[in-house]
Fold this protein.
Amino acid sequence: MNIDAAIAELDSFLGDRCSRSKSDLDQHGTSETHFAAFPPDAVVWPENTAEVSKILTICNRHECPVIPYGAGTSLEGHTSAINGGVSVNFGRMNKILRLDPGDVDVDVQPGLTREELNRELRATGLFFPVDPGANASIGGMASTRASGTTAVRYGNMRENVLGLEVVLADGRIIQTGSRARKSASGYDMTALFLGSEGTLGIITRLTLRLSGQPEVISAAFCGFDRMKDAVDAVIQTIQMGIPVARIEFVDTDTVRAINQYTGMDFAERTHLLLEFHGSEKAVAEDVRRFGEISDDFNGLDYMSTTKAEERTALWTMRHKAYYACLSLRPGATAVVTDICVPISKLPEAFEETRADIEAASIPGPILGHMGDGNFHAVLLIEPGNAAELAEAKNLAKRMSERALRLGGTITGEHGIGIGKLDLMDAEHGASWDVMGDIKRTLDPVGIMNPGKLIRGN
Amino acid sequence: MNIDAAIAELDSFLGDRCSRSKSDLDQHGTSETHFAAFPPDAVVWPENTAEVSKILTICNRHECPVIPYGAGTSLEGHTSAINGGVSVNFGRMNKILRLDPGDVDVDVQPGLTREELNRELRATGLFFPVDPGANASIGGMASTRASGTTAVRYGNMRENVLGLEVVLADGRIIQTGSRARKSASGYDMTALFLGSEGTLGIITRLTLRLSGQPEVISAAFCGFDRMKDAVDAVIQTIQMGIPVARIEFVDTDTVRAINQYTGMDFAERTHLLLEFHGSEKAVAEDVRRFGEISDDFNGLDYMSTTKAEERTALWTMRHKAYYACLSLRPGATAVVTDICVPISKLPEAFEETRADIEAASIPGPILGHMGDGNFHAVLLIEPGNAAELAEAKNLAKRMSERALRLGGTITGEHGIGIGKLDLMDAEHGASWDVMGDIKRTLDPVGIMNPGKLIRGN
């Protein structure tokens, strides 16, 4: 490994788009959550695929680690340069490359954020539905197989990325997928790179499937005195096949945090926040049918609205929930858990988790995308407090083990990074070895985002 | 390679579940379409995963080719034993392994057919939506990433398989995915095996996502004098986001074939066949909205029905279309094409294909899943007529090249097998090499379904 030699070459090739300034290194080494900082040795800003290919060719020759960097919103330390090396920032590769009238797909560069994309799409009658909350980059969302509030209706990145351009570790450029909505042509290489967290190659272009902006959107919410009733209402909704576009759960602690943080005044009880998309009649019918379910499970104050400003307020509030939870304990950082279980196992997963957190000494509001069986506890700890970190990690580990016992997964949408490596063996066993075999086949030198996802990587 | 030694071991291990009878070999070597027969040297019928593992361990040691065999309904010669070896027939691994009340997923063995599965599900209020027409095995559908008439609404196997148990070439048994609806946990190993056509391992168990049986189902159809109007009506439907459950296209030749074959009396013009799923009000609204589109594009005789027997008649008829087309030319066999293009490119892809076939000397009815951008020409040729086979293959090649030029794929749902190998380089380029690298990593001896999908496999 000769990182300095790699950086010297990158420096002469990229000029002021290669930085070793402390502020750049620090910014690229920090994480949204509790992880220690691991700054890279340099940051580069490529402007096109050919430059990315050249960067990788140089780094591969010098065995220099390469860490792709989008918007830095990932939660499992995906962008930490734990062995040093070069962060590749996609801030200058953030363009829409193709958007033609009549098409229901678009080609974008990885540094484009989802909010920028949807702003550009507004006039077309189309939108990109995947919404992880944070204004993540599309490349980052692809790399972690992101989902979020709308996955229950529109799917996650898996269902909404049709094709990719990828630069492999040795600089080769490949295309995966196509603009077709489906294909049976060979291995699903697109799916292989989605969620590979930069360990197999660097995504330099994405073809995204778009959806039509719904004729009518109705947002709704209702409260529950008993959390179990809210969970059961979600299960009933999914089993009946009501096509909810979002069905989000926030517990009492989360509601309290949101009220404090945003100045709203939701009743301090568990809430479901919903959205319905479709024709006027279909949406009205969905709102009515969910109202019946709410009644069946003792829902309170069921309200719905089709007014844009009220909807926006509701979802802005939901999207601020993470920061609101952090503010419950001033100065705190968080261990954010992310389990996903079969819908029918939600009550068990949820009640056990709730009891576990109540017995602990640290706060842990719970919220989630219950329609997918996916929920988070935001475990609030004091930065630098080793005992609290250990307690939070222990709670998180028990949640993950619970998810596996119930037939689920240790992460519904945040990914592995460095935060969940110690649980991979329990979830995947020999399949994790095969992931490692594939990793070493595509990246024999081992430069691609080392230390993430793969055993002993 | 020592096929005889492998079979001798299999014979002593499996007894009368290992056959070398000519009728068994012939049955497993033939294809639904125009391919020459390539019988295996033996056929085995395992009864559980451990036996599959032992079969592969034996075959791997003797470098004996292994060809998984489900219902034999694939169209690209996937089950041909082109280098001889052992066909593994899953007829005795056809059970439902788990189906619990309240769950919206099910565990099945690969030999179960989709019709058997849906018969078992009938009482549960759930169904498995992927419907390729033929009564294929679930394992075969997974191996070719099958889709069919309902993919426009419910997705294909990619969206409806949550997890797999797979036996690798060396006999190791791995699990992929879970029962959770989504996951960001490591590489998407489930997606890697879906569509891998038995070249990476053998699927021995599948966890399938189920959907709720719709409250109301309405089938509908309408005719068009101009094919272009029908195509434009499909595009408009998709762009408006009307949640059609099926939207199928049959051209005039196909309608004529169906009338002859089934005794129906559809007007001999292009038709769209549709289905709408949902609540009573939502379905009524969808039927009405499509009616407006039909009017806008000069649709004729738009009819809809919610009567089960009428719906069944319509779809039985559609599912017989392949055999109906064959009967247009008594004694014929077929080269079946399968391109899929971006929705906005359907008119171009379709018109050029139509003109190309009209200029040829062989008949080629066109039908397809237009809502996905996927359509087929059934090119009818005389068995053994080399000139006609060459002409059909040339038409098929031009269709595939057209699909690629328009941003699409050479196969929407039938897969590669031996039939489309010569087009893989044009579609995937260097990405095909990476598929080969992955293949050799998982199957270094090269026993898994040799000659299919991979370059020089």
Notes: Chain B touches chain A through 93 residues (CB under 8 Å). Chain B has four domains: 3-91, 96-212, 216-321, 329-415. The mean pLDDT of chain B is 95. The radius of gyration of chain B is 22 Å.
